[in-house]
């Protein structure tokens, strides 16, 4: 190999998924030079449900107040705008939580969608395109293979198609997802089954009976508790179809979730007719979901973690893009302070853990409660809650408007003390 390269930097971010790209975008806005590496060239795929929640919208509004309108609403060939959720119960009944019920029955009149769905190959590349390359040394297609700490600096070894890349950094940000190489070097990548799920995705074309307002569909099969099946509508008659289940339950019952997923599509009375004339566009793909609630330490002397590397997926919804992006925003603010003080020790990041978790505490409690009740009570509880008309009223009229107001109008606060 030839063309070896050496970079010396204050900050090196490893991973340019939503969490790493967001950290980089905000460091760029703050004028803080840094290096960002990713093992892959973009666009690249990531196994995901492709659902973008209001946390994502909130961070995007901080990147550029016109982002949603210009890049998403005006790009219906890449983004599906959705006004809510359809919960499907084991008996086939469904409950629609539809934000557009406020305005009219037409999604076009909903000025502020509640979800978007976009293939990660598109969304992640779009985020990477917003990185300021005058401030960021971006090295895509470069996989970090080794990390060593000497005194108070880090030496990273990366490999790309033209040779080796050596990076000398004062601080490293682990944004390299669930299989984080940074986490392996600074702590221990131990799967905490109580706060972890296994999940699958398969792109389909031609699934029938999707909702005209593109509601994101979530189905709780009664025969398979602590799991959910989803159909998230994509542009052009395509859909992201997937299935996730709590890892503890998978292990306890020795469940093969690929088989369970396939069976649901082929035989479940609630689903099978909708897939009769549809076809899968790919083989089933699986990946892990590290959920918030584990005791993973997200920072130390000269390092911090963001996104999946920090185990930040919302445990009640399985959404980790938005919480990962928020952690990127928070990380950039802490790093700004560390740069101002020229101090990258752990003491500068004392409350980082609190700040990245504070919006997830309620969901963590809810998930712990759901896991503590017997499985039959969980299944019955879901059915009772979802079919209660007060739940629908509360969700549509109280909860959703609150979420929208926060996402579109409120600044993300970061407290250092
Ligand atoms: C099946 C499934 C469905 C899901 N559905 C949803 C959903 O609908 N909505 C939602 O919000 N969340 C969903 N999630 C969770 C979501 O995918 C993750 O939370 C999110 O991708 C986390 O972003 P991240 O930037 O932390 O990590 P990633 O998106 O995983 O990005 C990590 C990046 O690091 C790079 N990298 C890894 N190792 C190295 C290395 N050694 N050197 C250099 N670069 C490296 C990778 O190439 C990658 O680009 C789902 C997850 C799964 C598995």
Commentary on this structure:
With 417 residues, the chain is α+β, with helices and mostly antiparallel strands. It has two domains: 5-51 and 121-191 and 291-367, 3-Layer(bba) Sandwich (FAD/NAD(P)-binding domain), CATH 3.50.50.60; 81-117 and 193-290 and 373-409, 2-Layer Sandwich (D-Amino Acid Oxidase, Chain A, domain 2). The protein has 13 helices and 19 strands. The chain has helices at residues 18-29, 54-63, 67-73, 120-129, 181-186, 247-253, 257-267, 272-275, 321-341, 352-357, 361-372, 375-386, 389-409, and strands at 5-14, 34-37, 51-52, 80-82, 84-88, 94-98, 115-117, 136-139, 143-150, 153-160, 163-174, 196-205, 216-219, 227-233, 238-246, 279-280, 285-290, 299-300, 303-305. The strands form three sheets. Strands 1, 2, 8, 9, 10, 11, 18 and 19 form an eight-stranded mixed β-sheet that branches. Strands 5, 6, 12, 13, 14, 15, 16 and 17 form an eight-stranded mixed β-sheet that branches. Strand 14 and strand 15 form a beta hairpin. Helix 2 runs parallel beside helix 9 (321-341) and helix 2 packs parallel to helix 13 (389-409). The longest helix is centred in the C-terminal third of the chain and has 21 residues, at 321-341. It is globular, with a radius of gyration of 21 Å. The model is unreliable at 104-110 (pLDDT under 50). The site of flavin-adenine dinucleotide has 40 residues, from helix 1, strand 9, strand 12, strand 17 and helix 9.
């Amino acid at each position: 190999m030839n063309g070896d390269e050496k970079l010396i930097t204050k900050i090196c971010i490893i991973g340019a998924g939503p969490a790493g790209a967001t950290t980089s975008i905000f460091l760029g806005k703050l004028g803080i030079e840094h290096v960002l590496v990713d093992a892959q060239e973009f666009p690249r795929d990531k196994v995901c449900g492709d659902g973008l929640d209001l946390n994502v919208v909130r961070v995007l509004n901080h990147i550029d107040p016109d982002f949603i309108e210009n890049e998403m609403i005006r790009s219906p060939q890449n983004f599906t705008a959705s006004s809510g959720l359809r919960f499907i119960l084991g008996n086939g009944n469904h409950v629609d939580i539809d934000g557009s019920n406020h305005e009219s029955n037409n999604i076009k009149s909903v000025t502020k969608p509640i979800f978007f769905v976009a293939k990660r190959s598109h969304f992640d590349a779009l985020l990477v395109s917003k990185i300021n390359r005058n401030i960021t040394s971006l090295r895509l297609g470069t996989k970090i293979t080794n990390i060593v700490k000497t005194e108070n600096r880090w030496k990273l070894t990366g490999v790309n198609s033209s040779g080796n890349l050596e990076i000398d950094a004062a601080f490293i940000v682990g944004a390299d997802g669930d299989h984080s190489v940074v986490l392996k070097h600074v702590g221990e990548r131990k799967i905490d089954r109580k706060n972890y799920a296994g999940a699958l995705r398969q792109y389909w074309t031609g699934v029938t009976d999707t909702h005209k307002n593109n509601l994101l569909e979530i189905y709780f099969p009664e025969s398979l508790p602590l799991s959910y099946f989803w159909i998230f509508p994509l542009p052009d008659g395509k859909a992201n179809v997937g299935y996730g289940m709590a890892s503890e339950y998978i292990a306890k019952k020795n469940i093969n979730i690929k088989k369970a997923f396939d069976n649901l599509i082929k035989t479940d009375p609630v689903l099978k007719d909708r897939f009769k004339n549809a076809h899968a566009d790919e083989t089933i793909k699986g990946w892990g979901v590290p959920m918030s609630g584990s005791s993973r330490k997200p920072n130390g002397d000269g390092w911090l973690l963001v996104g999946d590397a920090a185990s930040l997926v919302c445990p009640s919804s399985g959404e980790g893009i938005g919480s990962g992006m928020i952690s990127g925003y928070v990380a950039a603010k802490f790093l700004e302070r560390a740069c101002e003080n020229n101090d990258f020790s752990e003491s500068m990041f004392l409350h980082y853990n609190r700040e990245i978790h504070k919006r997830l505490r309620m969901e963590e409690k809810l998930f712990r409660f759901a896991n503590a009740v017997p499985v039959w009570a969980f299944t019955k509880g879901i059915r009772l809650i979802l079919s209660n008309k007060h739940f629908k009223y509360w969700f549509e009229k109280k909860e959703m408007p609150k979420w929208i107001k926060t996402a579109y109008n409120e600044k993300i606060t970061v407290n250092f003390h």
